[in-house]
Amino acid sequence: MTPPSFPCAPRENAGRGRKPMPVPGTIMGDIGVGLPGFLPSSGPIVQITPPDIARRRLASWGVIQADTVKVTRRETFEDAFQAGRHLLIAYERAERDDGETHIEGLPKSTLREFNCKLSFVPAGHRFYGWQRPRVLTRVTYFYIDSQDRSFGLDPPKISPRLFFFDQAVWDTALKLKAEVGNSDPGSGQYAEALSLVLMHELLRLERTASAAARPVRGGLPAWQQKRVVEFIEEHLAEDISLTALAELVDLSLYHFARAFTQSFGAPPHRYHMARRMDLAKNLLQMPTLSVTQIGSRIGFRETSSFTRAFRNFTGLTPTEYRRQREG
Predict the structure, then answer these.
(1) Closest CA to 87 of 138, 139, 137, 150
(2) Are 67 and 143 in contact, with CB atoms under 8 Å apart?
(3) Cα separation of 28 and 285, whole Å?
């Protein structure tokens, strides 16, 4: 039986089938099924239990190490991490029938589908999760040296984030993952350059988030913004009533709608729809999904309704947007 295609999976390297050869400045190694003790790592990595449920490959480029993971059985497993370096997680294929994920400092999440999502665990924070997978999970862990001078003499603090999406971070992470096992000349230097870009994208994201969290007169406090945004992200493909959002933060409908608009620059319904369109843009870059499938994934029962909404936000139909990106 052919496995289902997955929208966020990167294209396989053209050199598939060749035995990977180390390139200058790169440290690589495999952690195969049945070889849980072979950990060619420059530091602690995410511990997966049971260890033989996943096939892993590690590659290091200076301040960043990539750890690609493919789960090989649909059985319950756990993953945990706590160390003196940052952890960025890129979930390419991740759906579960049951489970929860927790990053120290944030509420735990029982989100069932987190394909195309990112999470960030700051150095020293504990990460733990367990799941009964619905599909064979594909995820890449990026370990980042938090004390590297690329962050400056006084490394800034980066806040924990659970199941978020940022296009620039996502694109850079997948480009870096694609270099794991690449034996082409110059791949190591390219990966090191991507590592720096990834680090600065994370800093950019933190600065943007900090600016957005500053109190707006008449707007929602930071904790209310966080609670509402997390709820919307976990229910992107569903219809969310204004009443449900207002009750989350214990405000009247009128007060909530006004405060939300002042905080985010758009009414709740439009903000929710904009986030759905952002996800649609990402899925449209994957040719394996049809426009109808993408519309269904983000909560549209009719393709015509999805097309109309997408055009209202972008000025293009989904098909036109896809062709423009391909060109």
Answers:
(1) 139
(2) yes
(3) 29
Domain 27-213: assigned CATH number: 2.60.120.10
Task: Calculate helix-pair angle for 268-283, 222-234, nearest 10 degrees.
Answer: 50
Tokens of 156: 């800034």
Query: Residue 198: which of 171, 161, 232 has the closest Cα?
Result: 171
Q: What pLDDT is recorded for position 312?
A: 87
**Among candidate residues 80, 38, 76, the one with its CA nearest the CA of residue 55:** 38
Averaged confidence pLDDT in the chain: 82
CA end-to-end distance (rounded Å), the chain: 33
The domain made up of 267-327 is a member of CATH 1.10.10.60: yes
Q: Where are the domains of the chain?
A: 27-213, 215-265, 267-327
Average pLDDT over residues 191-196: 89
Angle at 70 between CA 299 and CA 163, to 5 degrees: 40
Kindly report the pTM of this predicted structure.
Answer: 0.63
Exposure class string for 183-199: b at 16+ Cβ within 10 A, else e: eeeebbebbbebbbbbb
Note the pLDDT of residue 48.
Answer: 96
- pLDDT for position 112: 85
Residue 63: count other Cβ atoms within 10 Å of its Cβ: 20
Asked if 96 contacts 71 with a C-beta cutoff of 8 angstroms, the reply is: no
Q: What is the pLDDT of residues 104-115, one digit of tens each?
A: 988 888 888 888
Sheet of 138-144, strand order: 27-31, 54-61, 64-71, 138-144, 86-93, 117-121, 161-164
Note the residue count of the chain. 327
